[in-house]
Design goal:
elongated; three-stranded antiparallel beta sheet; alpha+beta; single chain; six-stranded antiparallel beta sheet
Length: 191
Amino acid sequence: MNRASTYGFGTPWGFSLVELLVAMAIVAVIGGGVFHLLLSSFRLYGQGVASTGGFEATDAFDLAFSRDFASAFGPLGFEGDAHSCRFWTFRPSGHGPELALVHWSLSHQGATEERWPPNSPGEIPPAWTNVYPTRVFRTFSYAGTNAPLGEWAATWSSTNTAPALLRVQPAPAKGEAAAVRGRVYLRRTAP
């Protein structure tokens, strides 16, 4: 405090310029640190959301596809290649299981599910479409009930049976060998 500036009343009137500058410098240093900490945490949060967004879509795809394939109704046929498959499946509805035609396709944008009710199979456009923006391009491969262990077919076409196993795996990059890892789905046997 500057005790010399009392203006004749004997009590100090305010802070000196040096005291104000020191206080502003302290507030600026603390405020700058807090601002940097907040900015870093928001940036880190954004990176975390961006890096895990594909996992949520992949989990949703895995859940929906496993439910559809587990309930695939083989006697109505199954058609599939490396990038798409089409089959009849039982889906839950408000009044019990409902038979529906589904078409799953895989592309660089993700997995697409199209569904038609039993009274209008294959009509354009489908009654329901959902896109799962998975980050990795995947391919389908198929195995029958009597297929040797580890033997997968790139296509499946049958008017009265569905494959017992279906594998979804990341597609190999150009010049790479086929990927070994992947997810295998098991179809329940028809009653």
